[in-house]
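Step 1: inspect the first sequence and its tokens.
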Amino acid sequence: MRFRRTMEVGAVIFLAFNLVNLWAQAPAEGPTAAAQDLARKAKSRGDYKSAAEGFEKVRKSALASDDKKSAAQAAIDYAQSLERWVNTDPTQQNRLAEAAQSYQSAIQLGDADQQAYARNGLGVVLLRQGKAVESLAAFRGIDMDGIAPTARFAYLYNYGRALERNDELQTAYAQYRRALELQPRFEPAIEGAFRVLRQSPRPNIKEAVGFGQQLVVRGSGAFTARQIHTLLKAWNAAPDASELLTVLVQYYISASVDPVQFQEVELGDLRSLGATTPALRSPIDEILTAYVGNFPPSFHHGPARNIFRSWAYPPEHAALFSALLKSVGAYYDQRETPEKALPRFSAAWMLNPSDSEAAVYAAAIVRDHAKALDPQGQLFNQLLETLFMQKGEAYFENDWPNILRFHVVLGTIFEREKIWGSAQDPRSAIFQWENALEAEKQVRHVDKNFTPSPGIHASLALAYEKTRRTTDAWDQYVLAAQGFIESHNPDPAALALEHAQSLSVEKDEQRLKKLEELRSRIAELKKTAV
């Protein structure tokens, strides 16, 4: 294990060289140039012995001509060749001392950039020699803010390793985090940060969760999940260890980990952990149920909150687990397994009532597979009753954003059912879409920055068209087109305008002028988009 970590540190220093020393690649002149070229070629083909000998000749020649900058670069190249030689031939470990001396020479001879690079190289070599105190002194001599951001992450990581070796764990953690701010997917720094967290006197669950969630958002979910598994084993006795599972769930959602992948990669470790840790057994079992379990659909809150009791509270946990259920439900829906998709969509909505998308998906499955899943229509009626009840509660609390959301969900459901109705029939598309527009006005009255919803106008236009209210339909299609134009969506704007033009309404001068104006604006939008 120790040798593997040493190699990691070495790899970082080589990466840093490639990033920051382009300035040092200018060829020398005369005989020195030929020696430099030969040394670089030897280095590129892996002949580090010949490369080291060549760079040493270049260094001596540069010193003889008092070219300190070239001598410093040759010293760096010489030290780096020795390091790589040791990497490929462990019997050459004694060469590390020569490499350290060469970096020290570069520090004496070089300009500010070369000195910083040489200190970094020296710090790494000293770490490999087990000289942690001397290594830390080398890194502390570097002005980290003066390093180019594209390479600074490597310097900070190396500095963190030296701090960690000197048991300055809090500062080491800070340097690993700084490195990850610059290079969010840099796995050695992720591993280092979690390794330091594991060495905390007391489990710092809150910090680990926040850090892990940030890494998942930045695209390092799979590697972060492995670190979380390690923390779960190390901290399984902590009272709030189950909070770490939220990072895993977030990863499953962000990476769309499907049931097959889950069973291949995660299932075994989680089952083992749940079997040995009573406090984690229920939340883990509920994750397994979400992926591969069988449970009945319901549009009442109680059953979902009982089945997924560990995730039902607090609200942020319920929202997170709801998203997982919806993701897994989508997997089963896409594979034509509605009997598995529906329970997950319904539970997702019941755990997180604000997730109207889950409600719409559930309604679609109930109606598309009514014969098999809901032959008596009980589930569909239960779904509608719950929606109307929640909408009523929103009206009681003057919660206009949620009122708008419920009208949109109900409008979508009735539209799918082709129940167009009227303004007096709550169980109809027209009623729901008209009231959705009124709710949107109320929301925008409070929040001037609220984004308009031209799709509501388009849906209401369709409902009017289906009930032969052609003049009203024309007006709504035009309003939809205007809204889509204002939100810079030319394609749906053009579609709404096309529907308006297809209606049998009198094309008076005002209407023709309006159509021409909108066509022109759509054309301009498409031109600027190109």
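Step 2: inspect the second sequence and its tokens, then contrast the two.
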Amino acid sequence: MGRGKDMARVVRCGLVQVGSDIPMTEPIATIKAALNEKCSRLIGEAAAQGASILALPELFNTPYFARFTDARWYAAAEPIPDGPTITLMRELARRYAVVIVAPIYELDRNARYNAAAVIDADGSFLGVYRKHHVPTYHTGNYEQFYFHQPDLGFPVFETAYARLGIYICYDRHFPEVARIYGVKQAEIVFNPSATGGKHSERVWELEQQAYALNNGYFLGALNRVGRGQPYDVSEFFGKSYLCNPLGEIVAQGGRGTEEVVVADIDLDEIARSREIWHTNRLYLDRRPTTYVEMFVEANEATGAQPGARKGETAMVQTRREIRFKPIMTQEMKDAAVRALEDGKMIRSHLEKDSDGGRFEDEFCAYLGAKHGVAVTSGFAALHVALMAAGAGPGDEVITEPRTFISVGDVIVLVGATPVFVDVDPETLNIDVSQIEAAITPRTRAIMPVHNNGLTCDMDPIYELAHQHGLKVVVDSCQTIGSEYKGSRHATLGDIGAYSFIRNKSMTCGGEGGMVVTDDDELAYRSMMLANHGRGRDYRETHNSELIGFNYRLSEVLAAIGRVQLRHVDDWNHQRRTNTAVYQELVAQRELPIVFTSEPAWGLHTRMRCVTLVPRRDQLVEFLEAQGIQASPEYRVPIHLNRPYMEKFGFRRGQFPVSERVVNETLILPNWPPLTRPDLEYVVDAIDRFYRNG
């Protein structure tokens, strides 16, 4: 059926409904090889049933990895048509004389796309469709971290058996796309998908049956099944189907089953159905010249904004205000009100049965740590951590100069001397290769600063500390959720300090901090230092054990922090996604902007999107005039601040990398609520600045 010229208008179509049951922790090459083998077998089975046209689901030879951000999966992308997967599909198409629609992760020079290759029945490569609509971030979907926006449009492929159109997954929610394929006289339109969730399942058939009916073509909607453990916890429900030009389903797969859905379709039915239904009149009565409002008006109800893209009519760019505002949801407000009404306000004895106590426990569970002490700020956390570690008068503490001045201040306030080591030009964190030369008999601790969401290279630091009997006191104020070699816990050192001030990964409604350690003694000393020196028996003796501070975090801020902690991973993924979009847009425009690197050993949360740019100060002024808040971060390294030059004799030229990059560093707006049009507005403004001289 369907392959001979005697029945040229009847074709047998097959939808390959499969999933990935291989743990996502396995090597990418192993996963792809196994899924290629599985799908090759199913293609052979479908061909044995007489199928002429076969389509595979979205990203068929990988798990659906876009539910988190992990640059490891960039390695899954491969060229089309010369990569190994499409080469294999071309051989199968030639062997079985079938047309194959093969959606994979495509690499094209430095760009990556969610794409589908179309291969004719003789194995020839006809072309590629690239997913046109890459969804804006929403919880559990970070496609913009992986996929670039394409500009290939909506090609119709002339195959041996039918004229094919393709749109991938999320594209199906845009009726304009479905109409384009009708106008271009596609006969069969395939929608490879990776779809789950009760709301999507409810409209899975409804939405596209209407497209088939109103545009007059056959439609093949195919979905994945199963889950991609351990990370991909959403189930893909399958239920792939073929429907005719009257919108009637003619064949459908089961819910959650791996199978090939096969059906014969008569392409002559397209003309007949257009007579039965009023499809022909729909095309005759279209008024495309009147639809310009779709492209020139902002949709205030949804927040959509006009913006010109390649291949579209140019539109006026509406001025935006891109300025930071901390996230404060109703859930957080409710938590704060509850804490206020509870009346505790402050934990006089750091009681665990409280929002503060539960915040400490939940934060430690998040990091995999043993002890936490909630305090009023990141500075308080650093102060407590350094004192708990025993640093004091006559000691030296090794750290870096290209960071916020509080790092130096806290060392001086405990009576120690800051000893600076320059930063690495790629990561802008401490250059670990220079630390050993800075160690003296007076060195008490090494204080690495995890900057802007990226941890320092900790193993060499731990090794040096062990060799010389030093404490590692970590400034983790900017790295909530960051990982070192796959572990959050590995970032901590002997004792670490976190910050919740308004511009950090989470804010506690204004300001706060946390001291974290696995060491029982360090934890006990930290608890006392944060609360007037009160020890375990203070309730009975009213006698403090040491001189301490009033660094207790309020119950209201702790209650807000508990809510925010549940969202911080999502916010981190969005920041990573924003940075990936910035990198895509900057590369397209060939702008002179350098992004800090993400080494193989560190998961960079991109708490700040740090770049190095020429003419930084003029650019900051220009962006401000466009309504864009961009920051130079630290204009002066710590050692060149007047008090440090006067007290310790530091001078210009001692730390050349730090001194250079403080004049080049630009922090691009990178807050979770930002959308792709926001990011495009920022990059368009930067583009105008450099192109206009």
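Step 3: confirm your contrast with the notes below.
The chain has a mean pLDDT of 91. The longest helix spans residues 568-589.
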